[in-house]
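Entries read chain and fold; for instance:
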Amino acid sequence: MSTTTAVTFNVPTRAEVSENNQGIFDTLQKGLGFVPNLYAYFAKNDTALGDYLALQNRKSTLKGKEREVVNLVTSQINGCRYCQSAHTVLGKMNGFTDEQVLEIRKGTANFDAKLDALTRFTASVVEHRGRATAESKAAFFNAGYNEANMIDVVIVVGDKIISNYLHNLTEFEIDFPIAEKI
């Protein structure tokens, strides 16, 4: 007979992380006004936080609003409440209304034809593990996106899968206003 014990995952404080990560915490604190729990959790590993931030902050062919579409769709499909919540805030900071954020999370963006093609393409990429449907690819390219944009969509999906999986594994506290369940 085996017994299973629940494992609790704690977000480290600044004092509990390496000197290098303490410097990153200070930069985040200065820039954001706080260190999001997701970023803090990455700091349990000496290099992961810096590596993850470098990936997130890389130059992209996608505008901020477009990256938020990819983040919202990916987080919704992966069931990550932390990232749904964080990107609801960031989506609104990038100009989306509450209603538009919910629509994107549901898999459409009927308020904007180009963003709708991006939303549907991203959903197809995530749901089919990179084997997006021919229809979603055609709509994506017909909407004016190109292969460089496609590469950036895949990179943003990969970035979001990393954070989605990390939170889904650990379920540490969400430090953003909790996004509406859909």
Observations:
- The chain has a mean pLDDT of 97.
- The domain at 64-170 is CATH 1.20.1290.10 (AhpD-like).
